[in-house]
């Protein structure tokens, strides 16, 4: 049976299934680990596990592999969590795996970036099943509508690894990988407080998320999970505003699918101007407050 | 009462990768990477894994660190660097067969079943293929718990505590041994090893052996090409002009 099982850890991971399933020409079931079942994206059925707490990966992978037998494809949105869990699922199922799929040529041929985004590889899957993590920006947004049947399932995700504690930061701002607008800052923001007030302030005025370069994270002025780039988050907002960011290959690999890129940098020779749709050579400490004033917030 | 083992063994898999700081291009015919004139290094995330193992050994000298690489004879160079950093011995599984993550996981699982390490420490991904698969596949094959994206590793009695980076922040896991940990950037900064150190490590044992499994790859790269370049846009002269342009595009 050629069919896709899409894993949604949370409800927000579900909608990307539709565009991907359409691109590979497969029907799909949705296995939703937590949250309200998403029934309007065209799944043949929704398997709702409704777990109140996310299990650690060894138990979760075992539970998913238990459901995934019989499917030709198992997919999920690319994220740190999906790579952690689904690569283990692939190991348990003795399956092929392709991470960070950005295009599908057929149900067994996929395109993905490698070497920090400097090469686009076409990967052929030689044996099924195939486990895939998918970057949604490469695929059309599927139509919403209809109503899939929902089946409650009970997952035994008992894990050996114990979670002692977790911290989630970010507060009220949208998630970077889902945000429509992102404002990102680089090393020139001199400290954490300045970063938060300048970059965070503009992000809030636009209802957007905050991102940062690796240099900004490494120097301690921005939190780890804000890092955008090949070794951080891969983002694809409608509007990406890069302030004080020179535009390393590493960083550009994470933002190149953004619809509009705006660069504000006082160095006219910064490489980011070669990629930006709109480049403003200016001091960000003057330009950003001025832009905020224009937006009127 | 269970007797505690006197020795702890850490296995550190190392991959030889093209210089992670070089701009790498695909060959004009799409058949692979153009590595002409480029150096090869230890995958930076694996180097962080070696460093972490060495730091654990500095606190407990009874730890034995075994570095392993799978690939051609040239991988000896990266294993020697691992030995110079502080690994006790190295194993090169010598092969020119095509490898993907599933083959690497199968070979490492066979090796782990023989060597019985207490922990496997390895990079979260290699900077050439950027796959982020082999560690998790290996942990699955061994039925060991895993902690990926490690930012901090602490050893306790029969356990390790790992603080790992997540999509939204971080979390701390406690794993019983044996377990597998994959390293992220912020775990440590590997020590610098000068050439004399690498030469000195030549006296450390490096064993070459053939593959232990007949696992065949489940994926194959059929083409490599340059990604579509983003077209450069235009410079705007002022915040006013930027604001108007974004308004016109419906972006604000």
Structure description:
- The complex is a heterodimer of chains A (297) and B (252).
- Chain A has helices at 16-24, 57-68, 80-93, 192-205, 214-218, 249-255, 284-295, and strands at 4-8, 28-32, 45-48, 73-77, 96-101, 103-106, 109-114, 119-125, 130-134, 149-152, 162-168, 181-185, 209-212, 239-243, 260-265, 278-281.
- Chain A has 297 residues and is an alpha/beta fold.
- Chain A folds into 2 domains: 4-152, 3-Layer(aba) Sandwich (Rossmann fold), CATH 3.40.50; 181-295, TPP-binding domain (Rossmann fold).
- In chain A, the strands form 3 sheets. Chain A has a 7-stranded parallel sheet with strand order 5-9-4-1-2-3-10, with helices on both faces. Chain A has a 5-stranded parallel sheet with strand order 13-12-14-15-16.
- Chain A is globular.
- In chain B, helix 3 (101-115) crosses helix 4.
- Chain B is built from 6 helices and 15 strands.
- Chain B has one domain: HUPs (Rossmann fold, 3-Layer(aba) Sandwich), CATH 3.40.50.
- The chains are: A alpha/beta (297), B alpha/beta (252).
- At the A-B interface, helix 2, helix 3, strand 5, strand 7 and strand 8 of A face strand 3, helix 3, helix 4, strand 9 and strand 11 of B.
Describe the protein's topology.
The complex is a heterodimer of chains A (297) and B (252).
Chain A: E1 4-8, H1 16-24, E2 28-32, E3 45-48, H2 57-68, E4 73-77, H3 80-93, E5 96-101, E6 103-106, E7 109-114, E8 119-125, E9 130-134, E10 149-152, E11 162-168, E12 181-185, H4 192-205, E13 209-212, H5 214-218, E14 239-243, H6 249-255, E15 260-265, E16 278-281, H7 284-295
Parallel strand pairs in A: 1-2, 1-4, 2-3, 3-10, 4-9, 5-9, 12-13, 12-14, 14-15, 15-16
Antiparallel strand pairs in A: 6-7, 7-8
Chain B: E1 9-13, E2 16-18, E3 25-26, E4 33-34, E5 40-42, H1 44-59, E6 64-71, H2 76-85, E7 89-94, H3 101-115, E8 119-123, H4 134-142, E9 146-155, E10 159-165, E11 169-176, E12 179-183, H5 195-200, E13 206-209, E14 219-225, E15 234-236, H6 239-248
Parallel strand pairs in B: 1-6, 1-8, 6-7, 7-13, 8-12, 9-12
Antiparallel strand pairs in B: 2-5, 3-4, 9-10, 10-11
């Amino acid at each position: 049976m050629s069919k896709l099982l899409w894993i949604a850890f949370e409800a927000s991971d579900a909608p990307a299934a539709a565009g991907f399933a359409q691109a590979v020409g497969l029907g799909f079931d949705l296995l939703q680990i937590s949250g309200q079942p998403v029934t309007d994206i065209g799944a043949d059925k929704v398997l709702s596990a409704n777990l109140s707490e996310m299990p650690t990966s060894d138990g979760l992978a075992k539970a998913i592999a238990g459901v995934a037998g019989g499917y030709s494809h198992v997919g999920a949105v690319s994220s740190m969590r999906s790579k952690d869990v689904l690569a283990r699922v692939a190991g348990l199922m003795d399956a092929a795996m392709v991470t960070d799929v950005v295009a599908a040529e057929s149900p067994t041929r996929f395109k993905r970036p490698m070497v920090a985004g400097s090469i686009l590889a076409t990967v052929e899957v030689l044996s099924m099943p195939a486990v895939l993590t998918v970057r949604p920006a490469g695929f059309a947004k599927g139509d919403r509508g209809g109503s899939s049947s929902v089946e409650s399932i009970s997952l035994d995700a008992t894990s050996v690894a114990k979670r002692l504690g977790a911290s989630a930061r970010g507060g009220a701002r949208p998630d970077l990988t889902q945000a429509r607008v992102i404002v990102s800052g680089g090393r020139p923001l001199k400290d954490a407080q300045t970063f938060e007030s300048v970059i965070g302030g503009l992000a809030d005025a636009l209802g957007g998320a905050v991102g940062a370069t690796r240099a900004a994270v490494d120097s301690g002025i921005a939190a780890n999970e804000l890092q955008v780039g090949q070794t951080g988050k891969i983002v694809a907002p409608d509007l990406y505003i890069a302030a004080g960011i020179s535009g390393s290959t590493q960083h550009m690999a994470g933002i190149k699918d953004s619809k509009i890129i705006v660069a504000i940098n006082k160095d006219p020779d910064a490489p980011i101007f070669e990629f930006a749709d709109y480049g403003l050579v200016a001091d960000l400490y003057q330009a950003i407050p001025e832009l905020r004033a224009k937006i009127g917030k | 009462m269970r007797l505690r083992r006197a020795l702890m063994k850490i296995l550190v898999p190392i991959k030889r990768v093209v210089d992670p700081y070089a701009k790498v291009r695909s060959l004009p015919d799409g058949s692979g990477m153009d590595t002409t004139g480029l150096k090869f290094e230890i995958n930076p995330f694996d180097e962080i894994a070696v460093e972490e193992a060495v730091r654990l050994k500095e606190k407990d000298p009874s730890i034995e660190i075994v570095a392993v690489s799978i690939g051609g004879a040239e991988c000896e160079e990266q294993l020697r660097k691992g030995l110079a950093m502080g690994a006790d011995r190295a194993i090169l599984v010598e092969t020119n067969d095509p490898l993907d993550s599933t083959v690497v996981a199968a070979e490492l699982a066979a090796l782990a079943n023989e060597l019985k390490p207490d922990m496997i420490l390895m990079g979260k991904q290699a900077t050439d293929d950027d796959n982020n698969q082999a560690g998790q596949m290996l942990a699955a094959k061994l039925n060991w718990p895993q902690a990926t994206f490690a930012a901090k590793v602490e050893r306790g009695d029969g356990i390790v505590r790992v603080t790992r980076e997540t999509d939204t922040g971080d979390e701390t896991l406690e794993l019983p041994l044996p377990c597998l940990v994959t390293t992220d950037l912020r775990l440590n900064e590997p020590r610098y090893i000068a050439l004399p150190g690498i030469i000195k490590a030549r006296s450390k044992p490096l064993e070459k052996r053939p593959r232990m499994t007949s696992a065949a790859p489940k994926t194959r790269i059929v083409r490599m090409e340059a990604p579509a370049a983003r077209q450069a846009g235009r410079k705007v002269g002022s915040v006013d002009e930027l604001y108007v342009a974004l308004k016109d595009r419906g972006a604000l």
